[in-house]
Every structure is written in C-alpha cells, then in structure tokens.
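Researcher: Quick test of sequence recovery. Tokens follow.
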C-alpha cells in the first residue's frame, strides 16, 4: 500500500497490568528529564512498550495531489528555487508522492540514505552519498538526527547540492530544525508551506511561512493564529 502512494497506518493494542504501566511511566518520566539525548531516550522507552502487540487492522488512505501541484513545482524549480519535502510519511509513501508530484523526475536517480544509528555508520553513508552526482536524496528522520549530531556541516553542504531532498518520518520539531539549519548554513531565504497542525512550527521558523487552507489546512491556520 505504501508503494502505491497510500498513507498507511497499523492499528494494534496491548493490555498492561498496573505494575507494567507504573514501570513504563517511571522510565518515561525519567527519560523526559534527561539533559542529554532526551528525544532518543524517550523514543527508546516508547519503543520498549510497542512490542508483542495484537494486530487489529491495517489502513491505507489515498492522499490525492491538489490541483496544479506538478506545474507549480516545475515553475519553482525553473526559478532556481530548491525544494525540500519534509513529511511524517513512511519512506515508501514519501518516495512515491515525490515522484507523482514530479518533485523527483521519473528518470532522475534517487539516493535512499541507509538507516544509521552511530557516528561510524553515518560517516560511511555520507561518503557513499558524496560519490553520487545530481541525484535526489531521501532520508529518514532518525538517520537525519544522527547525521546532524556528528556531521551537521557536511550533511547540509551535501544536501544543498541535491536537486531535491525528501525527509520522511519527520517530527514537527525536526521540520523546524531543518528550516533553521538551512538559514544558518546558507545565505538563502527560506519559505515553509504546510497544510496541517504538525507544520506550524516549521511555518513559524521560516523567513516566509505559508499555511494552505484545505481539508487539513484550517488546522494549520488556526494553530498558527493561536500561537501568534
């Protein structure tokens, strides 16, 4: 379903005893109080809970492109504007949407950044990416976080040379972080466009923030106005 471009969701459940819940809550609260690597520690605690779950169902929702997306992206590219797609979708879904919207042309090479979890793996994968020329980059939020921790300048420099960049499984915080990184490492103006509540932080971080009003867009606009 993800390869067909559908937004997929796995629904599962798990019953906890009171003792199990108390243990989880203690570890979760302790992770949230960590000074170093707070996000990683919180994610590890949550991941420890999401095991041996009972599968309930799978869902796949078609997310149709809005009118004139393809010609709009083409006009922006012809104007010399670099486009980055920041999304919470799975890698397969994000790649499919990037192709269907013509953010990545069908005959263009795509470098899918392999999952990395430490400095050594990030170094090897960056070297492999450095040998590629004129290809779009697809990277997950987890791998992006590792690269930025150890090789922030090198990663941003390489990514900015790509004709297109797709960051998948991105959290709202990471979306805003990427916008700020581009502002710090380049002299370029940034424009962030979003239509959902999880795009608000990214919209606020950019030099120019645009909230699109649509089926989800009213959420982005409402949250943005409230935060302002």
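Model:
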């Amino acid at each position: 379903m993800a390869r067909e471009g559908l937004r997929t969701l796995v629904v599962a459940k798990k019953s906890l005893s009171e003792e199990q819940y108390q243990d989880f809550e203690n570890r979760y609260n302790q992770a949230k109080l960590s000074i170093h690597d707070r996000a990683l520690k919180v994610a590890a605690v949550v991941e420890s809970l999401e095991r041996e779950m009972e599968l309930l169902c799978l869902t796949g929702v078609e997310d149709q492109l809005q009118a004139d997306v393809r010609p709009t992206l083409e006009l922006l590219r012809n104007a010399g504007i670099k486009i980055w797609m920041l999304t919470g979708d799975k890698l397969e879904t994000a790649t499919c949407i990037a192709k269907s919207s013509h953010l990545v042309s069908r005959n263009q090479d795509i470098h899918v950044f392999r999952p990395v979890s430490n400095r050594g793996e990030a170094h090897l994968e960056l070297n492999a990416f450095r040998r590629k020329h004129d290809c779009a980059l697809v990277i997950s939020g987890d791998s992006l976080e590792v690269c930025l921790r150890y090789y922030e300048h090198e990663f941003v420099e390489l990514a900015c040379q790509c004709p297109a960049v797709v960051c998948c499984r991105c959290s709202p915080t990471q979306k805003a972080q990427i916008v700020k990184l581009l502002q710090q490492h380049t002299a370029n103006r940034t424009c962030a466009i979003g239509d959902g509540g999880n795009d608000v932080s990214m919209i606020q971080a950019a030099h120019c923030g645009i909230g699109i009003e649509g089926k989800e867009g009213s959420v982005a606009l409402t949250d943005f106005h409230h935060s302002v």
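The first helix runs from residue 18 to 32.
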